[in-house]
Amino acid sequence: MTTILLVEDTKELANLVQTELAANGYQIVTAGDGESALACFESAHPDLIILDWMLPRMDGLEVLRRIRQKSAIPILMLTARREETDRVIGLEVGADDYLTKPFGMRELVARIHAMLRRSELIQSVLTSDRNNQNSVFTCGALQLDPVSFTARLDGNLLELTRTEFNLLSLLARNPGRTFSRNYLLETVWGESYISGDRSVDNAILRLRRKLETVGDSIETVWGIGYRFNHP
C-alpha cells in the first residue's frame, strides 16, 4: 500500500485530508510540526509527502531542504502564499508541485495520482538504465546520473530539483530535437497544456541560470518550444 506522509499543523484540515486519502486507498502518516516531519520521514519511509509551508518548530521550506539532501521523494507543498515568487521559491528548493489553500479534495487527489504516476514512470526508466548499465550520461562538461538524480558541470554538483533534472535529461539525451511546450508539460509534469501556463518556460529559465555557460545550449524555437544543442 502506498504510504503518504501528511505534514499539517491545522488539525481540522489534517483530519479532512487524512479521511479523503484513506478513502482512496492510501496509508497515511501524520506530523504536526517540522521536526516531527523529519522523524516520520526517517521512520515511515513514505512514497510521497504532502508538506505545509507554515509549520511550528521548523518551517516547510527547511524541512524540504533537508529531505532533498538525501531523497528525491515526490513532495507536494501546501501553501497559503499566493505570490508567484513564493511558489517559485518552493519549486526551486525542490518541491515537485504545490497547491494553494484553500483547495478542493478532488484536485488534491488528482495531483497525488499524477505525481505517483510520474514517479513510477521515472523508476521504470531508471530500472532500464541500471539493467543496461548505462545510467550516467555525459555531454561535454555536463554529467547526468538518473539513478541519484544528480547533475554535475565540470565536476561541480548542480542544485537541481527533480523536475529540472528530468527536463534537462530529456533535452540533453535528444540533442537537436525540438520539443513543444505541450509535450514537455505532459512528459515531465504529467499535465495537459493550458494556454498561459508558464511552468515550462519558468523551468527553462531556472535551468539556463543554473547551467551558467552551458545554459545557452538550451535553445528557444520560437512558436514551438525548446531544443538542446551540445556545447
User: How much of the polypeptide forms β-strand, as a percent range?
Assistant: 15-25%
CA(first)-CA(last) distance:
45 Å
CATH domain topology of the largest domain: Rossmann fold
CATH homologous superfamily designation of the largest domain: Response regulator
Broad structural category: alpha/beta
Question: From the 3D coordinates, which CATH architecture of the largest domain would you assign?
Answer: 3-Layer(aba) Sandwich
Helix percent reads: 40-55%
Specify the number of helices.
8
Modified residues (4-aspartylphosphate): 52
Protein name: Transcriptional regulator
Organism: Leptolinea tardivitalis
InterPro entries: CheY-like_superfamily, OmpR/PhoB-type_DNA-bd, Sig_transdc_resp-reg_C-effctor, Sig_transdc_resp-reg_receiver, WalR-like, WH-like_DNA-bd_sf
